[in-house]
Amino acid sequence: MSADLPQFINVGKGERERKIAVRHDERGTPGVLWLSGFKSDMLGTKAEILAEWAAKQNLTCTRMDYSGHGESGGEFVDGTISQWLEEAVAVFKQFCKGPTVVIGSSMGGWMALLLAKALNEASGGIEGSLAGMVLIAPAPDFTEELMWKHEFTDDMKREIMEAGRFERPSEYDDSPYIITRDLIEDGRNNLLLGEPIITNCKTIILQGQKDDAVPWQHALRIVEGMAHDDVVLTLVKDGDHRLSRPEDLDRMIAAVAELAGQ
User: Which listed residue, of 58, 126, 134, 257, carries a Cα 20 to 30 Å from 179's Cα?
Assistant: First the structure.
């Protein structure tokens, strides 16, 4: 099916069922899977550039929107890390049938690492495999390590816990981020830093040193955790969080091409 229009799959059961938008172009292997960031979607600059490159290389390309994001159903405020991970795993199982390079941006980097963990712990029934990962300004554990511990004041924490939510102004969008107590508490069930991170594939991390959302030192903690797998960290001295300048996009494509053997 052409990715000009999204197709939809149902994830979850009963009241938790939601329609997840997927753009999937079936071509050759290895495939690539794009995982977006927090409140981002699969039609962003990096995702579109990746899809265009995959088409030129005749590689299968899969993109998705988490519930409450982009073209998918559901409300953003109902989302949690566990819920979005469930959706990413469902998309991988259904669409990624062979070796796949996973590209995760910001929160998508957390999703990619959690996806690798889920695949490693799966007892079977999954046709696809990880051929490598490219993590762009990856933000594992951001709800706890970046928001709760460093960004939120005591008043903000109190409002989240008592009112169940806090509206946080966004630097990238006109509408505020609504941070819910469920998001924070569920995030604590998905923490990865501080213990070994096993991917069983090579990982390339691209991180800007002028990133005002995810400090570059955060990437070092990921590298420290990935002691058993091959990992390469590239620090972009003048790079911001988006890493969407032409030279940044070239770095992304070069990393994906390396892992895809192109």
Answer: 134
Q: Which residues contact 191 (CB under 8 A, 6 or more apart)?
A: 140, 141, 144
Asked if 62 and 23 count as a contact pair (C-beta separation under 8 A), the reply is yes
Within 10 angstroms of residue 74's Cβ, the number of other Cβ atoms is 21
Q: What is the pLDDT of residues 100-135, one digit of tens each?
A: 999 999 999 999 999 999 999 987 778 999 999 999
Burial of 24 (0-12, 13-18, 19+ CB in 10 A): buried
Global pTM exceeds 0.90: yes
Count Cβ atoms within 10 A of the Cβ of residue 109 and give its class: 0-12 exposed, 13-18 middle, 19 or more buried: buried
Query: SS3 sequence, the chain?
Result: CCCCCCEEEEECCHHHCEEEEEEEECCEEEEEEEECCCCCCCCCHHHHHHHHHHHHHCEEEEEECCCCCCCCCCCHHHCCHHHHHHHHHHHHHHHCCCEEEEEEECHHHHHHHHHHHHHHHCCCCCCCEEEEEEEECCCCCHHHHHHHHHHCCHHHHHHHHHHCEEEECCCCCCCCEEEEHHHHHHHHHHCCCCCCCCCCCCEEEEEECCCCCCCHHHHHHHHHHCCCCCEEEEEECCCCCCCCCHHHHHHHHHHHHHHHCC
d(Cα 56, Cα 129) in Å, to the nearest integer?
23
| Chain length of the chain | 262
